[in-house]
Amino acid sequence: MKKPLIAAGIVFVLLLLVGLSLVGTYNSLVTRAQSIDAQWAQVETQYQRRFDLVPNLVESVKGIMAQEQTVFIAIAEARTRYAGAVTPEDRAEAANEVESALARLLVIMENYPELRSIEAVVTLMDELAGTENRIAVERGRYNTEVQGYNTAIKRFPTVLVAGMFGFDPRGYFESYSGADQAPQVTFS
Fold first, then answer.
1. Interatomic CA distance for residues 99 and 79, integer angstroms
2. CATH number of the domain that 133 lies in?
């Protein structure tokens, strides 16, 4: 009589331990997924800061550089695409387009020394440079969160829980192709 009761007690304790382990693993994955979402929100906050600064910079420069309308149009179109983007991947792609257009604007500004002496432009450029640094930091933090999460869902036994509850790998933030090359600006 005691042996079946002891066996049932051992089975119950083992099931309880397995259940608690599953709950703990699931909760850990939920926490990591939420951390990724929160970190992406930080990236978007910095993007918004950039997008708020860019029109002011463009307007400050536009009056002096009316002939460089293609850069201003590219910046405006990229901002519009970012506003309409739904997924983090689409937003990252649109943000990369803004970066490309801003890089062209910076090259143009280097060729117009009188622009750099205008206080409003200097202040806005400093703010924009600071924002670009913040974006780089937040993107790095986002990728670190994604790396931890992706590693966790691929490790045993977490891979079993991740598969059961639909925790899929997340995508890293990646720079646009050609970001490693300086933009070419021609004055013709």
1. 10
2. 1.20.1440.20
- Compare 99 and 161 and report the one with higher pLDDT: 161
Domain that residue 82 falls in: 21-165
CA-based nearest residue to 65, from 117, 111, 127: 111
Q: Specify if 2 maps to a domain.
A: no
Give this prediction's pTM.
0.62
Residue type, 55: P
pLDDT given for residue 115 in this prediction: 57
DSSP one-letter code for 85: -
Phi, psi of 106, deg, nearest 5: -65, -40
Query: Is the separation of the CB atoms in 28 and 152 below 8 Å?
Result: yes
> Has residue 173 been placed in a domain?
no
Residue 176: the pLDDT is 65
The DSSP annotation for 131-158 comes to HHHHHHHHHHHHHHHHHHHHHHHHSTTH
Q: Which residues contact 150 (CB under 8 A, 6 or more apart)?
A: 169, 170
Report how many domains make up the chain: 1
| 176 domain-assigned | no
Length of the chain: 188
* Residue 118 confidence class, pLDDT cut points 50, 70, 90: low
